[in-house]
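A.,

Following up on our hallway conversation. Structure tokens first:
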């Protein structure tokens, strides 16, 4: 498919509203399953399966599916670094929707935290876009290695989420574990597109292996994100997801798909600084969110 970056940007902006609505809706559904006064609100396998019977949860999943389909189209028209980096704009939408649904006031400190995360990710995106290579380079060994490393990092975050002592830190860790997979899968989708356009994909073992990776990854990431909702508010889950996922996706694009062939050391330093600012914004949001005080009081 021919490159059309402006249209891809427009489509991605539409998905930010869709994903924000899905986050708030699914958080409500998860709240009916988790045990609010438990020392650790992480849901059991049975509680996760019980979500399947919730119409509200399926409404959220439907919105996620619609957003994902639009994202796939956008990925076919623009570099991964462009599409994934814009996803952070779902964060302010989530804050506004959660304020309306839960009735809590969004303090100026929370808005400053949101602004830091959005600004840091936007800076990250600008640098990534400026130095992105015009084409991707598909290498089977790098692709498989990148998938293995990505799932390993996600597993470490999930372990922290399961064993963490503070609810808000468990929320961030679970969300980060899902976000790493989402970022990884954005890269895998890009790679699958390359396989389809450049090879006999029906006969390609790599193609079908990546399809399995996408299915397993989607299920795993969904479960991890639900655990994040069980341990904290949707704004923090969305903030963490949208700070970590672009970093994971861009890292995959640069290291695996060679989309950073034009990258310079000063640009790399700026991207690290921008990513740090975005993560710091999430830390501040977790600190000043009204749910933090109630969670720590349990």
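Then the amino acids I'd put at each of the 298 positions:
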């Amino acid at each position: 498919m021919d490159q059309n970056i402006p249209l891809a940007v427009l489509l991605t902006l539409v998905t930010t509203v869709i994903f924000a609505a899905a986050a708030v809706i699914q958080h409500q559904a998860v709240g009916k399953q988790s045990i609010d006064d438990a020392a650790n609100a992480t849901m059991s396998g049975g509680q996760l399966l019980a979500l399947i019977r919730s119409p509200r949860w399926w409404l959220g999943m439907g919105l996620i599916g619609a957003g994902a389909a639009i994202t796939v189209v956008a990925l076919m028209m623009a570099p991964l670094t462009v599409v994934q980096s814009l996803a952070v704009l779902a964060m302010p939408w989530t804050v506004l929707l959660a304020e309306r649904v839960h009735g809590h006031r969004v303090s100026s400190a929370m808005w400053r935290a949101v602004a830091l995360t959005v600004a840091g990710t936007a800076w990250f995106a600008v640098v990534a876009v400026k130095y992105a290579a015009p084409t991707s380079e598909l290498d089977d060994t790098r692709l498989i290695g990148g998938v293995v490393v990505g799932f390993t990092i996600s597993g470490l975050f999930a372990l922290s989420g399961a064993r963490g002592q503070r609810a808000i830190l468990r929320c961030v860790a679970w969300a980060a574990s899902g976000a790493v997979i989402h970022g990884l899968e954005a890269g895998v989708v890009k790679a699958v597109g390359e396989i389809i356009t450049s090879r006999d994909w029906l006969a390609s073992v790599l193609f079908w292996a990546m399809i399995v990776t996408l299915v397993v990854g989607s299920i795993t990431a969904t479960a991890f994100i639900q655990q994040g909702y069980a341990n904290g508010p949707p704004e923090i889950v969305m903030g963490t997801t949208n700070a970590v996922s672009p970093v994971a996706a861009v890292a995959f694009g640069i290291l695996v798909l060679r989309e950073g062939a034009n990258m310079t050391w000063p640009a790399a330093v700026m991207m690290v600084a921008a990513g740090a600012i975005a993560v710091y914004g999430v830390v501040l949001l977790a600190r000043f969110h009204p749910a933090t005080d109630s969670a720590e009081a349990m």
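The chain has one domain: 5-296. Curious whether your intuition agrees with the design.

B.
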